Amino acid sequence: MTLPRSYIAGCGSYLPERRVSNEELAQTIDTSDEWIVSRTGIKERRIAADGELTSDLAYKAAIRALEHAQMTADDLDLVILATTTPDRTFPSTATRVQAMLNMKSGAAFDVQAVCSGFIFALSIADNFIRAGQAETVLVIGAETFSRILDWEDRTTCVLFGDGAGAVVLRKEHIEADSDVDSREQRGILSTHIHSDGNYSNLLYVDGGPSSTQTTGHVRMIGREVFRHAVVNLAWVVDEALKANNYQRSDIDWLVPHQANKRILDSTARKLGIPEEKVVITVDRHANTSAASIPLALDEAVRDGRIKQGELILLEAMGGGLTWGAALVRW
Ligand code: ACO
């Protein structure tokens, strides 16, 4: 008997060219490189150029992921794009990217789970493949978060950046009665997603089509978000490990959402995972929301850190609150 499973056939990412350092921000708001680095680990972020949209970043990351997978858009039957900063209120940015890829068939839609968006999109894609409704899915996390920041609010505007990352998921069949442990065979072993709308006031945008008819700006109670992040992330990592009968020490690489270095350090410490096993990009990318995990994953795959056969744990938390994890055998 064979069981369907998805695996990551390729990954890609894209960052806008413009780098904005902490010193540059300190020229316009009351902050300093020392404050930002000590509280967040962020040294610089990329900011999209005028006229450069979320779909532009997403498209470039998608092309790189398809090339890495040695596939073309003709092979795709689904595009799922996680974003909080769509080009327009509608249609979805995923359909825009579908058109840019010249993809004439299949379906495309956006997913909104803020910083957890990539894990949510990956989970949906994996389930489509397991259910037999798709064979090849492009999963993208793309953001121009700079467009929803209040650039006079120093408590939020220093934290975020723009970027995009993508993976191509493909179906394959695992021999259920093979001698090889199915957990040792490549693929997404499981995904776990959660939300609790009671905490929506901790991190939100104060606008929207239905409420204010404006786009709005990010608002956040940073300390509370921090507290929930460390607890929820450690919990969902353990949930993913338990579901697959693994221990924390079995993880080869933790690829977390890059909110800030202190959340990464506290979560890794709580889980007893050494720093050398954590992929970190927050110092150069800041928090790129739904894009941060595929950006970090792509970097660690391309520089050779992540190798075939290793156990990778992806995790994220974001506004909603939302949080989730995915355990992947590379
Ligand atoms: N530069 C200088 N001073 C600042 C800045 C800044 N950029 N921002 C805030 N301050 C000041 C505050 O005004 C405050 O001054 P006051 O004491 O005179 O009022 C002081 O610094 C301390 O402010 P706090 O908010 O208490 O600072 P804290 O130590 O909590 O650090 C931070 C703030 C970095 C936001 C922290 O709470 C945090 O990391 N929270 C997690 C939030 C996060 O990462 N969110 C991302 C989205 S969610 C996600 O992705 C998981």
Question: Can you walk me through this structure?
Answer:
The structure is a single chain. Helices cover 31% and strands 27% of the residues. It contains ten helices and 13 strands. The strands form four sheets. The chain has a five-stranded mixed sheet, sandwiched between helices. A four-stranded mixed sheet has the order 8-13-12-11, with helices on both faces. Strands 2-3 form a two-stranded antiparallel sheet. 51% of the residues are buried. Helix 7 packs parallel to helix 8. Strand 4, helix 4 and strand 5 form a beta-alpha-beta unit. By secondary structure, the protein is of the alpha/beta class. The protein folds into two domains: 174 residues, Thiolase/Chalcone synthase (Peroxisomal Thiolase, Chain A, domain 1); 144 residues, Peroxisomal Thiolase, Chain A, domain 1 (3-Layer(aba) Sandwich), CATH 3.40.47.10. The protein binds acetyl coenzyme *A (ACO). Acetyl coenzyme *A (ACO) binds next to helix 2, helix 6, helix 7, helix 8 and strand 12.
Descriptive labels:
alpha/beta, Peroxisomal Thiolase, Chain A, domain 1, 2 domains, four-stranded mixed β-sheet, binds acetyl coenzyme *A
Structure described in brief:
By secondary structure, the chain is an alpha/beta fold. It has 10 helices and 13 strands.
> What is the CATH topology of the largest domain?
Peroxisomal Thiolase, Chain A, domain 1
Number of domains: 2
The largest β sheet comes out as: 5 strands, mixed
Structural class, judged by helices and strands?
alpha/beta
| CATH class value of the largest domain | Alpha Beta
Strand adjacency order, main sheet: 1-7-6-4-5
What small molecules does the structure contain?
A: acetyl coenzyme *A
What letter string, H or E per element, gives the SSE order? EEHHEHEHEHEHEEEEHEHHHEE
CATH superfamily of the largest domain: Thiolase/Chalcone synthase
